[in-house]
Amino acid sequence: MRFTFVPLAPLAFAVALASPSGAQPVEGVSAGHGSPSAVQPVEGASSGQGSPPAAPAAPAASAAPAAPAVDDFEERLVLDTGRKPPPPPDPTRSTFSLQGEYQLRYRAMSDLPLRAPPLSAPGAATLGQSQYIAHWLRLSPRFHFKDKASIVAQIDVVRGLIAGDTTRDVEQVRDARAALAWYEVHPRTLYLELPWALGVVRVGQQSAHWGMGLVVNDGERASVFGDYERGSLMERVLFAATPMGKGGPLHVTVAADLVFEDNAADLLGNDVEGQDEGEGDRAVQAVVSALWRERHGEIGIYGAMRRQARERRAKTSAARFNEVLTAGILDVAGKFNAPVPGGGAHIYGELEAAVILGSASFAPSGPPPPSGRGFGRSPVVVRSVGGAATLGAVHVAGRGGRPAGRWGRVVTEIEAGYASGDDDPTDGVSRRFTFDPSHNVGLLLFDEVLAWKTARAATIAERELFAASPEPGIRSLPSKGGVPGAAYVNPRILVRPARWLDLKAGAVIAEATSDLVDPYGAPRAGGSLANYDGGDSRRRDLGVELDLGVDARIAMGRLVTLQFGTEAGVLFPGGAFDDAAGAELPDQYLLTLKLGVIH
Fold first, then answer.
1. Across the strands, what pairs with 212?
2. In 3-state terms, what secondary structure has residue 539?
3. What pLDDT, on a 0 to 100 scale, did the predictor assign at position 312?
4. Best CA proximity match to 452, nearest among 567, 571, 355, 276
5. Is the backbone of residue 272 left (phi > 0), alpha (psi -120 to 50) or beta?
6. CB-based contacts of 450: which residues, under 8 Å, 6+ apart?
């Protein structure tokens, strides 16, 4: 059977827009939602209202950003992490600041059943991981030369597994948790920022975010459940401006990128464990975005063109191929907020919808494989769509004479999302859309079960099925924790008995948007394709997930905040995970204990 399936992850690319809470757009740097000191694209994107607040923008000149009115909506009313915005530049002198966070996680979970590699590890019928301890230390220094120029950096000084079980036979993903390595170092950003009359210019390695973070996500924004991931990092030259004048509603950004690391590419080739040096992706892209922002809402659009290439080498022969993607994306994002008549509450909402169009080719670049595979392949057409929307309400407590005295006592919201699927790997059209992994939906279904099942399927294909001649699209098959080809509803509720304490609950109800097909797996009897466990691919019910959690924030003076928390989830799997014998996937459980220190 000839497979032409290319399950591409959505493109990643840069945008830059303004901070939502009355801060001056474009004129500075907004703080990352999930990190103590942000290194965002210029004014961070139409950031989700279910995320913590973006920090006030640092002014380009001596004018200070406008403070929100006492009764204005602020994103910290929905999700408050206790993080402080970075200090703005001082127009009279040079300043240096250092912010950071240390996070420690203990996780215990069900040992997930997976299809065993039939040749290399026939006994590996599970993931092999039931508990582990992981951590990361993220430092964010920044230097301001008055208000004339800034150097902004961010680095994960140490990151990785400290102790516990390791995974097995899932090496086709980055961060496979396959080895204890607490000392890994991950540089994130280092760039020069120069303000000008109507905006800023940035040059260097930068992070990127747009809208709800479905397509490109900076990996810094906290969510109700789960942790943020690595994010989209670019070697970039960026220009951002407000063409209608400083403080005007229109914000325009133009950027040119060499992708360092994102959900679809890795310049250094570290995204697959154990691969040969030099097998990284060469991905370049051009981005244009525009945003119209008013006090109670915004709407924006961006487009990008991307070309990505990687050399693929066979494991058991001298065969080599070039895998090339050329694609464009159009993405619309917006959000709104409005006070509830009578005061004391706000309603809010946000949405994002994207379409990816392009083509992918796979052609030999060296000696032909022994079987002659790879010749005569036609380019694969890429056509995928995805989107999500959130609607919520927050009841505000602590109304006083200043905005900082207000906090959200009760938050209720519901998110619905859709990502197109692909049930025919042989028709020459790739339709699967995968959300960025840092857009968290629950704890288990997407972050664990589908992530590891797609990783094991890709590992079997690369290691055993196509060892003599690599196949296109295998590197894009693992979902890495994103939402792949599925539709879901995700209601959430958060109650604060006190400002520092969050009690939260949520549910995920999901089904596949097409037959759930392992595109590289052996066909079942009768010639039909199978799911990732060899079962009936026509079963689309992914199951129901229930999540609970508690988070606490204790300020230790003005400089340090301690974070404590726990999250637990249970997944009742649907028929989409039945195996070849019709046996159901057992219920899956996960428990996380969290400890954090932020400065």
1. none
2. coil
3. 83
4. 571
5. beta
6. 479, 484, 486, 542
Res 41 pLDDT > 80 = no
Q: Is 465 helix (H, G, I), strand (E, B) or coil?
A: helix
**Do the Cβ atoms of 323 and 367 come closer than 8 Å?**
no
pLDDT digits (tens, 9 = 90+) for 479-500: 999 999 999 999 999 999 999 9
Coil vs helix vs strand at 483: coil
Tokens at residue 218, please? Answer: 């900076």
pLDDT digits (tens, 9 = 90+) for 428-475: 899 999 999 999 999 999 999 999 999 999 999 888 888 777 788 888
- 523 with 529: CB under 8 angstroms? yes
Which residues 6+ apart lie within 8 Å of 501 measured at CB? Answer: 550, 551, 552, 553
The residue among 539, 522, 536, 445 whose CA lies nearest residue 483 is: 445
244/21 Cα distance (integer angstroms) = 20
Closest CA to 76 of 334, 407, 345: 407
Position 314 pLDDT exceeds 80: no
Average pLDDT of the residues in 520-544 = 81
Q: Which amino acid is at 303?
A: G
CA atoms of 353 and 485, how far apart (whole Å): 14
Structure tokens at 291: 């945003």
Q: DSSP secondary structure string, 548-562?
A: EEEEEEEEETTTEEE
Residue 197's φ and ψ, nearest 5 degrees, are: -55, -40
- Span between the terminal Cα atoms of the chain, in Å: 56
CA neighbor of 13 nearest in space, from 211, 267, 209, 271: 209
Contact 469, 319 (CB under 8 A): yes
Model-level pTM? 0.87
Q: Tell me: the pLDDT tens digits for 330-355?
A: 999 999 999 998 878 999 999 999 99
Please say whether the beta carbons of 411 and 494 come within 8 A. yes
pLDDT of residue 365: 77
DSSP assigned state of 462:
I
The residues, ordered by sequence, that sit 6+ positions from 399 with a Cβ below 8 Å of its Cβ are 70, 71, 343, 344, 405, 406
pLDDT attached to residue 524? 46
The pLDDT tens digits of the residues spanning 177-195 come to 999 999 999 999 999 999 9
